[in-house]
Amino acid sequence: MAVAGVSLETGHGVFGLLGPNGAGKTTLLRAMATVIAPTSGTLRLLDRDPGQYGERREIRRRLGYLPQNLGYYPSFTVTEFVEYFALLKDMPAAQVPGAVAVALERVDLNNKAKAKLRTLSGGMLRRVGIAQAIVNSPELLLLDEPTAGLDPEQRVHFRGLLRDLGQQATVVVSTHLVEDVGAACTEVALMDQGRIVFHGTPDELTACGVGTAAAGDAPLERGYSAMLARARS
Amino acid sequence: MTAATGVPAAARPLRAAAVDGLTSGRLLRLELRRNAMLWMAPVAVALFWFHTYRQCLAQPPMWNLRAMTMQHGVLLDFVPPVIGAATWMGWRDSRRRMTELVAAAAKPRWAAQLVTWAATTIWAMVAYLACVGVLYAVIARNATWGGPLWWPAAVGAAGLPAMSAVGFAAGSFFPSRFTTPLVTVGAFFALGYSSQGAHSASSPWQISPQLAFPADIGPDPGMATFYHYLPDLSIAQVMLLVGVAIAALSVLGLSADSGGRWLRRCAAVLTVAGLTAAVTAVDLAGTGRTDPHGMVIIPALHDAANDRPIRYQPVCSHTAVPVCLNPAYAVYLPAVTAALAPVLSEVAGLPGEPARISQAAPIYAREPGKGIAISAGNPAPGGSPAVSGNRQVSLILPNQLPGQQGTSSAQFAAEVLSIAPEIVDMVIGAPVGQDGVPGGSAAQQAVAAALVKDAGLQLVGPVPRGQVIRMPGNAVPGPAQGTPVYAAALRFAALSATARHAWLVAHLAALRAGQISLALLP
Fold it and tell me: Domain segments of chain B: what residues?
């Protein structure tokens, strides 16, 4: 079982999901994206039950999702790709062009709007993925490793975007990069072996590492390592 | 697991896709712009031109032959590109690792798939309509009479969504790099061989969308010329193809991630309906039979109103004995007139000469153990001046016209001339006997044989009637060699045309009355 015993509740803000490889972060995100159904327990998203088709569809209309392994249609242009997902999210057709333009601007891709996806670099494709996730101004945004492949400048820009999005929506970010969490998240959960072993603010996670010999170059990394060691002991 | 995002759903004015047709329209526009079929359409057009278009134009310029030939070939041309593109589009999301992202979208998976399929099919249909449009325009320019046969075109048009749906479903259910080539090759051969199993109009294999005519007759110029094109078989074929398309597309909606319970129930009902339609169509095709006018009748689908003959004004030659043909055969009037000229010149001016040679509708009849026999029906009324039925000779033209399947003009002329014994018989009064040899007195037989021989036909011995429908080449039954009748015929034939004609003018009444013996023949 990839995820078991997880109990989480969160509201507006940026929620960081940290954990080592195989901790179950991606599985939890997929369940929250309604791609897979939990085998037990309850999952409520945006005050709705995703187990019911009608409610699941309502959730999906308000959902933005960036999977870890994002594919793409090489022959689509950037605009077409984002527009395609805006339409799949049931956005009213009249609002789509404007929403696409805004999304591309937020990820700094408006100058590549007409470029075919096959011509873009890995980092740019990641930004296209983020654009399609935010095009419908989601109330729940799920991002799995969103900064993988982004250059430092883009990463800084993206953290600003996350903070901005978090003011009106629930943003859940799964990442390996603790500095992203420290810079953008208002809440953080640490997962290990399918369980939540820590749930608090980044400052509280940092505090866990104070006075310990935990490995890490930054205070938050030391808190992460200390918490993980404590969970495994 | 217990997880919750506590943000209550805001009262955001989001409309359901069901009421937003624009959303699907824009999706379709996107899919149309980036569809693989867009690139395969020129391939389909090229295959059509190389195969079906050239094959159609090699046929005589008649709507029926060319339209039926078109139906026979067009789907075979379109199968590889259409089914290939549809299969390719069917597994696009798996190939591009987009399944998860698409699965998390609000629009039901089935609806999104249908849009992709629709885009593929629309491009295929555009290519098909362009091909058929050009072909029909060329036929309209060449044909002398009649109008387009729409049912063969409709069968082709119904075939494209069916092929596209089968390919799309295969690609969707079996996403693999081998799916596209396997399904394409498999469908090509399946369609190609589907018509091979049909040996008669009552075979269920007659449902093959390649067949526009009874399998045991083949495309014949006489079909749908004198009588309306019977759509019975076409209706069954369209029913099959629509059923296959609906079933293949509905199966996509059965999977758990395709949509809600209501949608999946709809898909299940449609799948059953599609399969039922397809099976019923095959069953109906098995009840077919060849009708007297060369088409397939399916009793459950037959409309008796289609059995009425088509009214037409014959086109006639301006010769002493007019030769009148159905206007669809107008281009062959000079050839037919020239072919009959030798025999008509032999009887010209004689009492009892035919007032007109009129083309008759062929009547097709299945003879047990002998295949299909073709005989002459009643010639259509018309032509000027009006003549009584007993002074009119019915002519059925050969079912192979010049240029059709390698038939030469000489072969055609020889076959047309095989009517000569009947014309001579009208004048000499020597009805054809049971052995295929002209009857009457010995002198009548000899004169008839001589006139037929001088018209350019070759006399062979007596042939029991019924064994040969149409003698090959320019051979006709005649008196046996070495008999006195044969010798007298040779002697009479050796006379000059003027002497022969003068003798006939003087002695025809006595000859018809049986008062002339062989010895009295010059």
Answer: 23-307, 315-520
Cα dist from B406 to B63, B107, B515, whole Å: 19, 58, 48
Interface with chain A: mutation pick from B5, B110, B261, highest number of A CBs within 10 Å: B5
Burial zone of B257 (CB within 10 Å; 0-12 exposed, 13-18 middle, 19+ buried):
exposed
Q: What's the pLDDT score for residue A107?
A: 92
User: For residue B2, what pLDDT is reported?
Assistant: 55
Of A11, A38, A54, the CB nearest to B1: A38
Q: What is the pLDDT of residues B125-138, one digit of tens each?
A: 999 999 999 999 99
For A6, the closest chain B residue by CA position comes to B1
Q: What pLDDT was estimated at residue A9?
A: 76
| Residue of B7, B24, B38 to mutate, interface with A, max A Cβ within 10 Å | B7
Give CA–CA dist A189/A118, Å, rounded: 36
**Which amino acid makes up residue B182?**
L
- ipTM exceeding the 0.85 mark: yes
Chain B positions touching A32 (Cβ under 8 A) are 3, 5
Cα(B93)–Cα(B102) distance, rounded to whole angstroms?
A: 8
Please identify every stretch of chain A with a pLDDT value under 70, giving residue numbers as ranges: 1-2, 5
Type of residue at B35:
N
User: Which uninterrupted H or E stretch holds A64?
Assistant: strand A63-66
What is the Cα–Cα distance from B158 to B485, expressed in whole angstroms?
63
Q: Which residues pair with B459 in a beta bridge?
A: B476
What's phi and psi for B477, nearest 5 deg? -65, 145
φ, ψ (nearest 5 deg) of residue B365: -140, 135
Cis peptide before B479 (omega within 30 of 0): no
Put simply, whether B10 touches A (Cβ < 8 Å) is yes
Q: For the segment B487-509, what is each residue's pLDDT rounded down to a tens digit?
A: 888 888 888 888 888 888 888 88
- Report the alpha-carbon distance of residue B332 to residue B309 in Å, rounded: 22
- Whose CA is closest to B27, among B114, B87, B124? B114
Structural domains in chain A, CATH included, are 1-62+140-233 (3.40.50.300), 74-137 (no CATH)
List of chain B residues whose C-beta atoms are within 8 Å of the C-beta of residue A63: 104, 106
Q: Measured between alpha carbons, how far is A181 from A173 in angstroms, rounded to an integer? A: 8
Read off the DSSP letter of residue B324: E
Closest residue of chain A to B32, computed from CA coordinates: A76
What CA–CA distance (Å, rounded) separates B396 from B390? 17
Which of A20-34, B341-355, B402-416 has the highest average model confidence (pLDDT)? A20-34
Strands B315-316 vs B296-297: parallel, antiparallel or unpaired: unpaired
Q: Is B466 helix (H, G, I), strand (E, B) or coil?
A: coil
Looking at chain B, which residue has its C-alpha nearest residue A41? B1
Question: Cα(B427)–Cα(B161) distance, rounded to whole angstroms?
Answer: 61
**Residue that is written with structure tokens 């060699």 in the block:** B481
Q: Chain A residue with minimal CA distance to B113?
A: A88
A7, A39, A87, A95, best to mutate vs chain B, most B CBs in 10 Å: A87
- The answer to whether B404 touches B446, Cβ cutoff 8 Å, is no
Given a contact cutoff of 8 angstroms between Cβ atoms, the answer to whether B344 and B320 are in contact is: yes
Question: Rounded distance, CA B84 to CA B39, Å?
Answer: 11
Interchain proximity A60–B9, CB inside 8 Å: no
| Helix B150-173 vs helix B63-90: crossing angle, to nearest 10 | 20
